[in-house]
Amino acid sequence: MNDKLDIQTHVDKLSTEMRRGLTVLVVMSQLNEPEYAYSLLKKLEEKGFEISQDALYPLMRKLDEQGYLNSDWKVDESRPRRYYQLSSLGEAVYNALKAEWKEQFEQVIHIIYQENEK
Amino acid sequence: MNDKLDIQTHVDKLSTEMRRGLTVLVVMSQLNEPEYAYSLLKKLEEKGFEISQDALYPLMRKLDEQGYLNSDWKVDESRPRRYYQLSSLGEAVYNALKAEWKEQFEQVIHIIYQENEK
């Protein structure tokens, strides 16, 4: 039962949960310049951050609705595309979230690597 | 609308989501020695990792059910307490998850701090 395959299955599930928590941060980090949903998907893929269309597209709409993004249709290309970019609120939220993330991971490093100390 | 208070409210919500993804990792990191639920809660609190009883206790039962923990009642103290400690499966999962987490944060550092590069 407890063979390597088994362990990997357990870890995959847990690490997906960890990754999910980072998605907003990662997506926002790429939107200091205009991107349409598919270009952003490809950009993230190239950088090794896996996210499905089914997860990314609703997230972009949600971030847009919350006022973190400005969005505009561009119709001068082969087909109309909606471009998204951080709004000024989005930029402020992103910068604060980045600082928060940094604090969290420093804390976790501290907790994990001092796990045996009292 | 977009004042500092507003931004903090936005960030709090998002950073809670980030933190949630780390909870299993952090909890497991403390269970290489036996802890009962309340002692673990206090230990995490001391190390600055905020988690409520309502979140921690069901999580420990879940980890126990999944076979990541061994648990035992100790009745020789002022009152009976259930002690939890990583099982050998739990240890293997924790070590793999720790490696995964390290990979994820290195990836995020890379993505965030090269955000303007093509």
Strand percentage of chain A, roughly? 5-15%
CATH architecture of chain A: Orthogonal Bundle
Tally of domains of chain A: 1
What's the CATH topology label of chain A?
A: Arc Repressor Mutant, subunit A
Of all chain pairs, the largest interface belongs to: A-B, 45 and 44 residues
Largest sheet data of chain A: 3 strands, antiparallel
Query: What form of chain A results from the Cα inertia axes?
Result: flat
Task: Write out the strand line-up for the largest beta sheet of chain A, numbering strands in chain order.
Answer: 1-3-2
Q: Compute the separation of the termini of chain A in Å.
A: 34 Å
Helix coverage percent of chain A? 55-70%
Radius of gyration of chain A: 18 Å
Oligomer: homodimer
Q: Given this structure, which CATH class of chain A is correct? A: Mainly Alpha
Structural class of chain A: mainly alpha
Number of strands of chain A: 3
How do the helices and strands follow one another from N- to C-terminus of chain A?
HEHHEEH
Number of helices of chain A: 4
Uncertain segments of chain A are: none
Protein model, in words:
Two copies of one chain form a homodimer. With 118 residues, chain A is mainly α. Chain A has helices at residues 4-29, 37-46, 53-65, 88-113; strands at residues 35-36, 69-74, 81-86. A three-stranded antiparallel sheet of chain A has the order 1-3-2. The two termini of chain A are 34 Å apart. At the A-B interface, α1 and α4 of A face α1 and α4 of B.
